[in-house]
Amino acid sequence: MTAITGKVGITKRPGELGIHSMDTFNMVVPDLKVAQDFYTSFGLDVREEGNGLGLFTFGSDHRWVSLAEGGRKKLNNLSFAVFEEDFEPIKKRIEEAGVKLMDAPRGWDSNGSWFRDPFGVLIEVKVAEKSSPDEKMDFVTGSVPGGKMGSVMRSKAPKVQPRRLAHVLVFTPSVPEAIAFYSSTLGLRISDRSGDGICFMHGIHGSDHHLIAFAKSSAPGLHHCSWDVGGINEIGMGASQMANKGYQKGWGLGRHVLGSNYFHYVQDPWGSFSEYSADIDYIPVGHEWEAGDYDPEDSLYLWGPDLPKDFVTNYEAEHPDAVTPGKASGAV
Ligand SMILES: [Fe+2]
Fold first, then answer.
1. How far apart are CA 41 and CA 78, in angstroms?
2. Is it true that the peptide bond before 302 is cis, omega within 30 degrees of 0?
3. Greatest pairwise CA separation for the chain in angstroms
4. Taking the CA of residue 144 as centre, how many other CA atoms within 13 Å lie in the half-sphere pointing to its CB?
5. Are 91 and 101 in contact (CB under 8 A)?
6. Band of the pLDDT at 324, cuts 50, 70, 90?
7. Which pLDDT tens digit goes with each residue over 114-140?
8. What is the DSSP letter of 102?
9. Which CATH number fits domain 21-133+163-303: 2.60.120.380, 3.40.50.150, 3.10.180.10, 1.10.10.60?
10. Pairing state of beta strands 198-202 and 207-208?
């Protein structure tokens, strides 16, 4: 397995304002014990913090996700990070865009700026270390020269441990409005889109092809969080690792078109997904990515199995198409 982090230095696009990372997000889940089992099985370092859980990657003290317990699954907050010198200017720009800043929610220890996006999602912008990679991360094929054995024994397969949170895909009632809002406030840029159905956006200071994506739905919600691993073998082993723990439902192995990453999605007990992802396209600082607008057929995957029928169901909408699935509610 490759190193936990791929940090080689801090990259910054001079003279332009924008967030550099999606620092963390907060989600309410119905049962923290079930969440602990799911994310521990996935290969994350799950720590008890107060009344909730923190999701870390092993070898790092960066909290990628915080979880609280509540009635039903709900994406609560997205936190983005800026360089210190950009904090006041970006705050000014947010206010000039007509967005009303608010106090940090009660009980949250934060020096950041807080506001809601047009659909009610709670957003924080704060000063924090750049957690998005500064260059494209290692992709390990594991190929060996002739005369050597490439695989390890199944009985000795190492546990897959993702290196970092790569991105989130969130549902939104209006993709064009989300694009307008997140570009004018946070400086995100379009990487690629498929009409008004889905849009992938990147940060300007060196970023994966997308650190956030927006997909059309009737309401906000989390579709998936994506976790970077070092190669296809780790994606496959991760899928097996989860299946062995009872989490067989999902989608993969496959390869996306927009972003180009290899993937396997595992469905969590609340209907959203955690993605093992490898080799996503990278947009270096200073590079002007040529954004495309693609037909739906070309926007999702190059190859892979058929989509699970509830893959794009928003279980956070008031009236989702189906009931929230349980851990053992049958194979996709
Ligand atoms: Fe993804």
1. 24
2. no
3. 65
4. 7
5. yes
6. low
7. 999 999 999 999 999 999 999 999 999
8. B
9. 3.10.180.10
10. unpaired
- What's the predicted TM-score (pTM) here? 0.93
**CA nearest 214: which of 231, 196, 226?**
196
Q: Which of 160, 151, 140, 152 is nearest to 244 (CA)?
A: 160
DSSP, residue by residue, 219-237? S-EEEEEEEE-SSHHHHHH
Residue 70 Cα to ligand 1 middle (Å): 25
Q: How far is the CA of 102 from the centre of ligand 1 (A)?
A: 30
Cα(85)–Cα(210) distance, integer angstroms: 24
Q: How far is the CA of 254 from the centre of ligand 1 (A)?
A: 12
Task: Report which of 32, 257, 252, 40 is spatially closest to residue 160, judged by C-alpha positions.
Answer: 40
Q: Which two tokens stand for residue 94?
A: 């947010």
State which amino acid sits at residue 126: K
**Ligand 1: distance of its center to the CA of 60 in Å?**
22
Angle at alpha carbon of residue 213, lines to 113 and 20, rounded to 5°: 45
Q: Are 179 and 202 in contact (CB under 8 A)?
A: no
Q: Record the tokens describing residue 191, joined without a space.
A: 């990487």
**pLDDT tens-digit readout, 13-57:** 988 999 999 999 999 999 999 999 999 999 999 999 999 999 999
Nearest to 165 by CA among 76, 229, 243: 229
Residue owning tokens 């008890």: 48
> Ligand 1 centre from 226 Cα, in Å?
5
C-alpha to C-alpha distance for 250 and 268, rounded to whole angstroms = 9
Specify the residue for token string 């290196």. 163
Q: What are the backbone angles phi and psi of residue 61, rounded to the nearest 5°?
A: -105, 20
CA 169–ligand 1 middle distance (angstroms): 6
